[in-house]
Design goal:
Helix content is about 50%, strand content about 0%. The protein has one domain. By secondary structure, it is an all-alpha fold.
């Protein structure tokens, strides 16, 4: 049986995070974000909203996948303080 990886796990793996919580501390490069959206595959808008909620710490109601990718990408690019990688 194949294990289905949810979107937040896929993002964490593609950004080489050891734990999901590392996404709160890791700053992605523009190249990583571009590659992420090429490699991540097809996920529902609901799943993008769940990732937005996890990363932004508040409910997200994206209207489409492109909007979700833009906002999530901006959050991944934002320089974060704390843990060093």
């Amino acid at each position: 049986m194949k294990y289905a990886v949810d979107l937040v796990e896929a993002i964490a793996m593609l950004l080489n995070c050891d734990y999901l919580s590392d996404l709160h501390y890791k700053t992605a490069t523009p190249d990583q974000v571009a590659k992420l959206w090429m490699d991540v595959g097809d996920y529902s808008l609901k799943q993008y909203c769940e990732v937005g909620k996890y990363l932004l710490n508040h409910p997200c109601a994206f209207t489409n996948v492109q909007e979700a990718r833009t906002i999530i990408g901006q959050e991944l690019l934002r320089v974060k303080k704390g843990r060093k990688f």
